[in-house]
Amino acid sequence: MNWKKQIRGQYLFYTLPSEFTVSALLKQTKAINDDLKDSPLDVALDLRGLEKLDGAGGRFINNLSASLEKQGRKIVYIGGKEEVLVALEESSFVKKYENIADFELEFHEMSPAFAESLLKLAPVNAGLSSLSLICPLCGNREVSGFILDEQKYKQEWNDSEITPMWEPASSKVESLDFAVYQVAVCTTCYFASLRPDFFTIVFPEGEVLSRLKTDEINNLKMTTSTRKQIMNQFRDADGDKYFNPPREKQVAYLSWLLHEACQKQMHSDRKLINAYDLVLANLYMCKYAENEEQINEHLHTALAWSNSLVENRQLYSGKRLMMGLSYQISILLALGKVEEAKAVWTGYRQEYAPQSEYHFWVKRVASLMSGYLGEVE
After folding, report:
1. Could you tell me which of 133, 260, 271, 330 has the fewest CB atoms within 10 Å of its CB?
2. What is the separation of C-alpha 121 from the centre of its chain, rounded to a whole number of angstroms?
3. 330-360 per-position pLDDT tens digit
4. Each residue's pLDDT tens digit, 176-206
5. Domain 4-105 belongs to what topology?
6. Where are the alpha helices (DSSP H) in 111-213?
């Protein structure tokens, strides 16, 4: 039986059958080689249903791992019985996940363990932990990044905001608008990202290299002039310290605008562009916009990218898709598209209301919809 193939996040995702033995090897080898030749994606193997793996099957997977490593690509495993995993070789390019939820968590975010380690190593200033970063494009070593200790802050909804706010969890913690500082920006080539790990992170103990792939870096390098044109549109947007704290409203707007540009420039295949990040960027640009015309423009752009997210849902984790749909309903209501919002809400409610881990988001959307549907449970 062939491996079932999907695209999940940045991975070619294969679900293995109950047996993978020499009898299936020749047919599967050609199919896998054809897939890898046509795609730059990493590989994920779902081993949860695999009961029998003979020596030939184990060697095939180990050789696949070695081949990917030579190309600068990685392979990850999800699940797997102990007797199956012992046949697979250890490698720095191999990562194992216990379940799908853990696997999906790292589609678009730093792992919780890595974020926690950053918080322990980074100095804290005014409620933020600051990071020294190196730009992976131009090598600028004077980039500043910031991360928030989510143990000291909690997310809450505000009636005047589409996005949730980070509020102090106690009176001992300073209040701040983290979205102002969320995007790190290189002031030489204007590479910008929400992800500190897309930069090289510098600690006294050593450096953690950027997670960006070579083709992503090359794509971003080739579009530096476009980002410089964006900067030229803003008066006084110059100097090495421009994006340092305290950031004013225009600086926050510009940081999200550059983040949006980089997300679009990173991939030559439009389907691989992170639509969720573009929804988020446009919603924050609404927040920091100077006039109603800008707000309306960014709301419509956010709506378009939310549609792209839904069309390419296989690229996103279940949680990220749920959050994107939550924003889509909010955007539709903000634009007066009530009937469209009702249509999305029907499926959204059926899918996510029963899942307790999503209640923070579902409760918010239900509150918004109650103004149009009456009381919503």
Report:
1. 271
2. 23
3. 999 999 999 999 999 999 999 999 999 999 9
4. 899 999 999 999 999 999 999 999 999 888 8
5. Transcription Regulator spoIIAA (3.30.750)
6. 112-121
